[in-house]
Amino acid sequence: MNIPVVFLLVVLGCSQAEGVSKCELRDLVLTELQNLQDGGLSLDPKVVTTRIVCHAEKSSNFNTSAVTTQGSDGGSSSNRKKRNTMEDMLEIMESEGMRTTTVQPKKTVKATQKWTFYGIFQLGNLLVCTDEVSTDPEICNYNCNTLIDDDITNDIRCLTDIIRKLLKDGFNQGSRFMEMIRLIYDSECDGFVYSDYFQECQ
């Protein structure tokens, strides 16, 4: 194989990974969260935006076409670090200005089905979208392929639906819903401050 052909294959391979910038994602997410706040839900849009954009960076590196699967040990192919416990999440959410209707989180049962995570936010098929495994998602109800294109409108809308449901109904949710919240509230994103995390966006 000659060098021009190799170069062409490399270019084509790289072009398949679509993404958005950290600053662009910040602006889009912040706008949606401000709308939730204006709708009467208790949250600090800047703090929660920092959490969500950090989650996108750690889980997909802002790649809108990312697809990963959860292994049989419950770990994801993205090799995420130790997750927060439900009690940790409740404490963190309260410190970030989010108020839910449930004081204590329910114990959840580990899902027996394998998850596939789609898109920039790595939203799980068993909760939010339909594919060959998931045919009856609990929320959003998109085709999973719509979460891996370069239009992240559906991704953001679905994520804000998850947050809205959490703020309205608290931790009294099914195990699939709470597993998705655990992923969003990964310990890798604890302690980030809006002004520092988005310093390059000023």
Task: Show unreliable segments.
Answer: 1-16, 72-83, 101-111
**In sequence order, what are the helices and strands, one letter per element?**
HHHEHEEHEEHHH
State the end-to-end distance. 46 Å
Shape: globular
Alpha carbon gyration radius: 17 Å
Main beta sheet strand tally, sense and closure: 3 strands, antiparallel
Indicate the mean pLDDT: 77
Classification by helices and strands: mainly alpha
Number of helices: 8
Q: Residue share in helices?
A: 40-55%
> Strands of the biggest beta sheet: in what spatial order?
1-2-3
* Percent of residues in β-strands: 5-15%
Overall strand count: 5
Summarize the structure.
It is built from eight helices and five strands. It has helices at residues 3-15, 22-38, 45-60, 86-95, 125-128, 153-169, 175-184, 194-197, and strands spanning 67-69, 116-118, 123-124, 129-130, 142-143. The strands form two sheets. A three-stranded antiparallel β-sheet has the order 1-2-3. A two-stranded parallel ribbon has the order 4-5.
What does this structure look like?
With 202 residues, this protein is mainly α. It has a domain at 18-67 and 84-110 and 150-197. The protein is 45% helix and 6% strand. It is built from eight helices and five strands; from the N terminus they run αααβαββαββααα. It has a three-stranded antiparallel sheet. Helix 2 packs across helix 3 (45-60) and helix 2 (22-38) packs across helix 6 (153-169). The protein is globular and about 45 Å long.
Descriptors:
single chain; 202 residues; mainly alpha; 3-stranded antiparallel β-sheet; two-stranded parallel sheet
